[in-house]
Design a protein that fits this description.
196 residues, elongated, four-stranded parallel sheet, 18% strand, five-stranded parallel sheet, 1 helix, mainly beta
Length: 196
């Protein structure tokens, strides 16, 4: 926790990455942060996220569902393009945020499908159909915002907060023997950036 921005090219082309835990404090996902992470399928865009920069999730071919947080203010060029497995998008925002005209790959030979269900609040279709980038989609489904899936973790149960063995773990919970400087790890239940 405490991390405000995921750096550009953070896990670019990390082909074995399946799950990533984006801290709830993140406001910006940097350019190409997860670009070409072909196996990435599991992540939550936290409420509080404001910007998804250019190419951030481009060509993440295993993502099936995208839940956009209500706090989102900007979606960059090709940031969500080439999501071949994507079969649904959810957005609680009544009025669509700023979105690059090519955010979903509209002008590319390989792009995110424009006919997938895009779930939005009742009465919001007119705002999405008239907003650049969002108007790429053709299958808006209006539903009650109370029926939306969560964009974040609803509840956490901690068995113990005392002690800890001082062991270092990666964000997937695997014990790390040789941490790398500048990487994010977990120790005694808290995330931190490793510094030598």
């Amino acid at each position: 926790e405490g991390l405000k921005e995921i750096p550009q090219m953070f896990l670019r082309s990390c082909e074995d990455l399946v799950t990533v835990n984006i801290p709830s404090t993140v406001e910006v996902i940097g350019s190409y942060a997860f670009n070409n992470a072909n196996s990435l399928a599991n992540f939550v865009l936290p409420e509080g996220l404001k910007r998804i920069e250019n190419g951030a999730f481009n060509s993440c071919r295993s993502i099936e569902r995208l839940v956009l947080p209500e706090s989102l203010e900007y979606v960059g060029d090709c940031s969500l393009a080439n999501l071949e497995s994507l079969n649904q998008i959810w957005s609680k925002k009544m009025i669509a945020c700023n979105c690059d005209v090519n955010a979903f790959g509209k002008n590319l030979t390989s792009s995110t499908s424009h006919g997938i269900p895009f779930y939005i609040p009742t009465g919001a279709t007119v705002f999405y159909k008239n907003m650049a980038g969002w108007n790429y989609f053709t299958n808006f489904v209006e539903i009650n915002p109370n029926d939306f899936p969560s964009a974040g973790i609803d509840d956490i149960t901690v068995d113990s907060v005392d002690g800890g063995d001082g062991a270092i773990y990666d964000l997937s919970g695997r014990r790390v023997a040789n941490p790398v400087e500048g990487q994010i790890y977990i120790m005694n239940g808290k995330k931190f950036v490793y510094k030598m």
